[in-house]
Amino acid sequence: MAGRSIMDSLTEGFASLVFGKVETSRPPVRTSSSQAQAVYLPTAAPGLGDSGVIIGREVYSGKGYVYDPFQLYGQQLPAPHWLVLGESGNGKSALEKTYVLRQLRFKDRQVVVLDAQGEDGVGEWHLIAESLGVTPVRLDPHGVRGDSIRLNPLDPAIATTGQLALLRTIVEVAQGRPLDERAGYALKAAHLRVGEAGLKYGRQPILSDVVEALRTPLTSAAEDMNVTIEDVQAWGLDVALVLDRLVDGDLAGMFDGPTTQGIDLDSPLIVFDLSAIDRNSIGMPILMAIVGVWLEHTWLRPDRVKRILLVEEAWHIINSPFVAQLFQRLLKFGRRLGLSFVAVVHHLSDVVDGAAAREAAAILKMASTRTVYMQKADEARTTGKVLGLPRWAVEIIPSLTPGIAVWDVNGDVQVVKHIITEHERPLVFTDRAMTESSADMAALLAANATAAALPPGSAEETAALEAAEAERIAALPAPAAPVRAIASGNQQPLERERRWAVEPIDADGDDELTAIAGTLFGKKAELPYQQAVETPENLDW
Asked: What is the pLDDT of residue 452?
């Protein structure tokens, strides 16, 4: 070997004889990147399992995303409660509606929705309720439509201690401060009096009875405290004025009588239509407190049914320390009875620095599942700090596109694209006011007016109603093509994939969940359906 001395050769030979041949260098391997990628196989984090409700697809891995708090509770979830956040128009309502529709496919599921958002004079869950043959429970202080109902805070179904706690909450929410001891005693004495009178005369006490008892206290109430009747009357005056709003004031017509009979608590879906209430008025948190306590005592039962309580505009609960305390107890108690609480909120900054910061933190801590849609950068940082999201998730939240959200399931963080089937789209579409033309709306109102003028129950009325519904569906805009993009700079065009149009075998078949499964997992999941045909217009990106 040129350049090497005899001594080097002897040294190497001696070392090889003693230690064996030692290879000190290897020739390089040259290859293309497309060939070398086989060395580094693609990997993805494990999912949440395959039992539960199909939500959509993980964006980065392409895997189907399945979520169910009842299936995950105990092992992967310490609590079955769920918080949904995000700016308007990014898909929160669509997610919740499809989630409820898919949960109701299980026989042991029951859902209550507090629908606080209105559309076309009714709650935005009206179409879903109508499609399932459910009549929403409408609370309307003005009784314009004539179909509003009453919920009695003194309903005998509510325990005596629950009634008194609810009355205190109503007054505290209205006054914006805790009830002092003297006013609390006057309320307690009045509540005890009307309760005893109800038992004696065999009738259901109502709020007007409490107002009257506060105005005219008994001598015994004064003697127990060694004060005059005038003192007890003065203590309860402000309380009486607050409760009078629910009897004769601007909130009358909802809680000033016995509970309306006929509310079907065994229905798979119960929708409380709160859209007639001003969302910014003091009536909304009062209303949610009363509904929440009434449900706690009448709806929750140890019958192994898995129940979901979904609250739109839930900041009315989280932002009020008095209402939040009631719901804290409901959430803790509900876990033993199979309750999953779902709160839909726009911004966490609305509540984390408010008067109910401590109560809000307690409720947020109970929510082991958090879904965050697009938010502005400042709000995303606040959300990430409060919820403890990883930095990468916080950074992409401002650039999320509609229908895509960051999911944090007890620390398992994924970016998920929600999938809506064509069967579900007409039911979950909630922004018609921004997309319909005035001409479309005028035609729809005219069709409804024509139907209203016809004899009720007649064939002509039925035909007119069907025509109005057809016009409403026809007025819906075509759905925008979904875009699989997370943030600027991550919008690489994807190759077209084969997708399959699925049709039920018969007109009664409604298992469109299999269509979602087919979209996610391939044709093998579409066995209950007819032979599929490839349709480019239905391709999903």
From this structure: 54
Residue 362 CB neighbour total at 10 angstroms: 17
Token readout for 265 is 């608590």
Task: Give the tokens for residue 429.
Answer: 């579409």
- pTM beyond 0.85: the answer is no
Q: Amino acid letter at 40?
A: Y
Give the contacts of 143 (CB within 8 A, at least 6 positions apart): 253
Residue tagged 């086989």 (tokens): 38
Among candidate residues 236, 223, 255, the one with its CA nearest the CA of residue 187? 236
Q: Is the dihedral of CA 276, 449, 94, 336 positive or negative?
A: positive
CA 537, CA 203: separation in Å to the nearest integer?
Answer: 63
Closest CA to 117 of 345, 323, 448, 367: 345
**Residues ≥6 apart with Cβ < 8 Å to 272:** 112, 113, 114, 115, 136, 137, 139, 291
As given in the structure block, the two tokens for residue 9 are 């050769």
HEC string of 376-396 equals CHHHHHHHHHHHCCCHHHHHH
Q: Tokens at residue 465, please?
A: 């109603």
Residue 332 token pair: 């803790």
Distance CA 179, CA 528 (A): 60
Higher pLDDT, 524 or 226: 226
Q: Which of 475, 474, 471, 476 is nearest to 448 (CA)?
A: 471
Report which of 233, 251, 270 is spatially closest to residue 153, judged by C-alpha positions: 251
Say how far apart CA 187 and CA 203 lie, in whole Å. 20
